[in-house]
Amino acid sequence: MSETSSPPAARAESTPSFSPLYQQIKTLLVTGLESGQWLPGQAIPSETELAARYGVSQGTVRKAIDEMAAENLLVRRQGKGTFVATHAEAQTQYRFLRLTPDEGAPAMLQRRLLDCRRMRAPLEVARLLALKAGEAAVQVRRLLLAGSNDDLKPVVLDDLWLPGTAFKGLTMERLQAWRGPLYRLFEAEFAVRMIRAEEKIRAVAAASEEAALLGVPEGAPLLSVERLSYTYGDRAVELRRGLYHTASHHYRNELN
Amino acid sequence: MSETSSPPAARAESTPSFSPLYQQIKTLLVTGLESGQWLPGQAIPSETELAARYGVSQGTVRKAIDEMAAENLLVRRQGKGTFVATHAEAQTQYRFLRLTPDEGAPAMLQRRLLDCRRMRAPLEVARLLALKAGEAAVQVRRLLLAGSNDDLKPVVLDDLWLPGTAFKGLTMERLQAWRGPLYRLFEAEFAVRMIRAEEKIRAVAAASEEAALLGVPEGAPLLSVERLSYTYGDRAVELRRGLYHTASHHYRNELN
DNA sequence: ACGCATTTGTTCGTATGTATT
DNA sequence: TAATACATACGAACAAATGCG
Which CATH architecture has domain B99-251? Predict the structure, then answer.
């Protein structure tokens, strides 16, 4: 029987409230995370307590938590509890950075801040971050460098744009003082947790300024990685454009 | 089925290290797939039947199948059954191809076969595919083109290497005659199903031959995508190197 | 058009195992 | 050792989707 494009059966779809119980529980839990009821790194109530609180069985709560754990919103630890995922842990240091050295183990990268300024969001940025025309944005530019301490070579040039209102206190000084991943700063100081991202990857030729900063000839091929990061509720809260020098590193991806 | 004196499941005691029942069931199912007991597109037995066959509860079988469905080994369809995943479906046409047009919906790509030859596997290929030195390999070269029928432009230049023994009958003629994705051919005619892949992505400058085939200037930046594809049992069975022209397309990735 | 059997999906309840404190 | 929390396993019942007669 071949598949002819038969029209989808007209379902009695009048009630969108036809959602499984565990999905409803999941929604409740997500809004709890969104509202800051449980903070990153903290434990949420036990399955049995949540079951009692919401008047469902423990297995139903379990299924809701299972899905959230699969989405990296929560982390389960047997015998200890279930915790709100955080960027403040070794395993999740660079959760979104797929750059890997061609040889050897992924090593720590050095950060070098180049710029941080407040400005009106450019049109394209405003569109992607769902900002109103002319609204404030913060732009950050920085380098990531690899190698031993006395032989550092730049591998990534990052440009970030963030919504001005949510990142009010973000200044050059604040960034200079910070030792650690940016997402950890955002989470700890600005209550913005990135949970998901989409990337568009291209090969481009290095412009003169970029080439100088990365130490490559003008026109050299670079990997352009445009990332849009989302927080709870699928709200885009960061636009990042990275230029990767892929001579001795590569972008690693796993397909399933 | 409520037998009063049904024999309790003879559990394999003293397994090297403890493994949950559902994991053992999963192993049994995977080996069933690997051995060709159930073929791509076919339905496996129902949960209740598997539960009876293996002497475990239906919920335990369910958990095993859940994990395999999450790994894209199986596909569940409510009311119909659980099916062995296949590349022969519209949804999974280009399951590993992340190339997306910058504007508009992902469109069908045209295939143009350039070459297919048998040869001794080059050293690097032999290493990655776990072949013995000097063993036979098949190399395929082809173009993927996008655009309307009277205005096709090349966007991908693919070079593939396959183990010679597993792909004995793969010839230029055979490929010419085939209309459809390669992975579907491999699955249907050579009983090799790709279930997972790893990619290393770089930006490179187009060499003269590649530039000519893709219709770009020599030295133009291209995306180099080196893919190693695996079948059941984590055996690498395909090495593919793609050069993507990313002027009006990009490589799309989702990070979780 | 209708109902029935089959299969997966959801929900509940209970008991036991394993890890942590 | 004991208490707590997540992990595994079983059993039962009903809902929803599908296909067939």
Answer: 3-Layer(aba) Sandwich (3.40)
